Amino acid sequence: LEVVETHLLTPSMRRIRFGSPDLAGFTHAPGQDLMFSVPADGGRTFRRRYTIRRSDPAALRLDVDVVLHGDGPGATWAAGVRPRDRVEAIGPRGKMPVDAGARWHLFTAEESALPATFAMVEALGAGTTAIALVEVDGPDDEQPVRAQPGCDLHLSWLYRAGDDPGRSGVLVDAVDALELPAGPG
Fold first, then answer.
1. Which residue, among 177, 134, 176, 179, has the nearest Cα to 159 in the 3D structure?
2. In the predicted model, what is the mean pLDDT of residues 71-99?
3. 100: which residues sit within 8 A by CB, 6+ positions away?
4. Which of 29, 43, 64, 92 is most buried, by CB atoms within 10 Å?
5. Would the pLDDT of 120 be above 80?
6. Ramachandran assignment for 104, one of left (phi > 0), alpha (psi -120 to 50 degrees), beta (any other)
7. What's the confidence (pLDDT) of residue 71?
8. What is residue 158's predicted lDDT score, i.e. its pLDDT?
9. Among candidates 20, 47, 44, 21, which has minimal Cα distance to 33?
10. CA max distance for the chain
């Protein structure tokens, strides 16, 4: 894949748009990912998986959103990648399909799961309910999501205010306080 463009979605999330003739006829299920061979110092490569946020096979484009955290190979690559850079990708991979028979869906996430969560929420059709509890550092890390017409989306942004992801307890507390809808979910 070749990087076509990049931009910051939030202070901690960067969208990388790829293009390639190999994307002709490309299909994937919401929530699936690609495994990238990410270049690192010393000519080494590391494999990192990133969820496909959106694809447009007609335009031969594909978007991946990457959390910019830490200084590991994936975060370093994502922070520095530029248009015309190339990267090898394998996939799509992953088997977390959205259950078409469920009336409601519960998503719990922090930033690293946000691309998969939003890809699956946006795939839900009319007559379904999506409950998404999303932990982020603060309001600057919120992103828009476009639910399909007729999908009842309940999105709660939970702020950890400087704590490390998963350490603040705000996500666990929100799940504990949640009253789930009736019916299959």
1. 134
2. 91
3. none
4. 64
5. yes
6. beta
7. 84
8. 97
9. 47
10. 55
Per-residue buried b or exposed e for 114-131, using 16+ beta carbons within 10 Å of the residue's own CB:
bbbbbbbbbbbeeebbbb
129/131 Cα distance (integer angstroms):
7
Q: In angstroms, how far is CA 51 from the centroid of its own chain?
A: 5
Model confidence band, residue 41 (pLDDT cutoffs 50, 70, 90):
confident
Q: Which two tokens stand for residue 63?
A: 């978007």
> Measuring CA to CA, which residue among 70, 33, 96, 31 is closest to residue 165?
70
CA distance 19 to 59: 8
Helix (H, G, I), strand (E, B) or coil at 155: strand
pTM exceeds 0.85, yes or no: yes
